[in-house]
Amino acid sequence: MRARFFAALTELAEENPSVLLLTADLGYLVVDVFRDRFPDRFLNVGVAEQNMVGVATGLAEAGYVPFIYSITPFVVLRPYEFIRNGPVQHGLPVRIVGIGGGFEYGNDGLSHYGLEDVAVLRALPGIDIVTPADGGQVRAALLATWDRPGPVYYRLGKDDTAAVPGLGGRFEAGRVQIVREGEDILLVAMGSIAAEAVRAAERLATESIAATVAVVSCIRPAPAEDLAELLSRFGTVLTVEAHYENGGLGSLVAEVAAEHGIECRVTRCAVRELPGGVSGSRESLYRRHGLDAESLCETALRCLQGRPRGTA
Fold first, then answer.
1. What is the helix (H) or strand (E) element at residue 97, kind and residue range?
2. pTM of the prediction?
3. I want to staple 245 with a disulfide (CB 3.0 to 4.6 A). Which of 50, 217, 251, 270 is the partner?
4. CATH number for the domain running over 177-304
């Protein structure tokens, strides 16, 4: 996803001289395509993420559209106060690009996991949150949102080859993308883990259970109306995210259900405890936290036991 993002960003910069890229001493190879094409519009600020946000805030105030890039916890959590006091409070077009949301850096340990980024940014009014599900969608998401007036956060995965079946690169801010239709249960997924949700739906089909799979790739502006319409059609809903259970997609879906008075059971499939000292591949951590396709299928079957399928 990240290589396709930078390819699209470089194309965008060809037509828009206001686009700049800043990095905090990482991203080698993937940022090279931009750096080599626009060396005077690329800044490596060193291992100084707070300063990077401050520099980007000043550049945005001067009329530029700066993209700042780092691993998710380093670009969101370390400079959080600077994001709050700078681009958010002043409504400036700083673009925060967080790579490796969830367990993408699973082998590097807990310090590199991005499991709370959406929650802490959702707490701040005025910042858009974009969570593309695959490389095909990331290009459409960038082109649709890069020129929004305030700050934008892009939560990107590392994998440039995986694709979510049925998504086809579709993106529209504030909307939900349906990638599979079924009448028995609804699976709502955020980010690249949507591929696991599709695989879970395929497993459910072997049990004669038809699942709708919806991809939420824009957390803010929230697709509230799309979600309300979907939730009203199902009695059983699973949200799927590589994120802590509070403050992310599951919280958003539960809020929409409550605020619209929709009677459905929402089960949040997310990370419920600290991973602690456990590290490993993304896939092994999905299994450990019940987020792989097989675990999602088992959760769906448990939730459906004794409940009518379809509309509540």
1. strand 95-99
2. 0.96
3. 270
4. 3.40.50.920
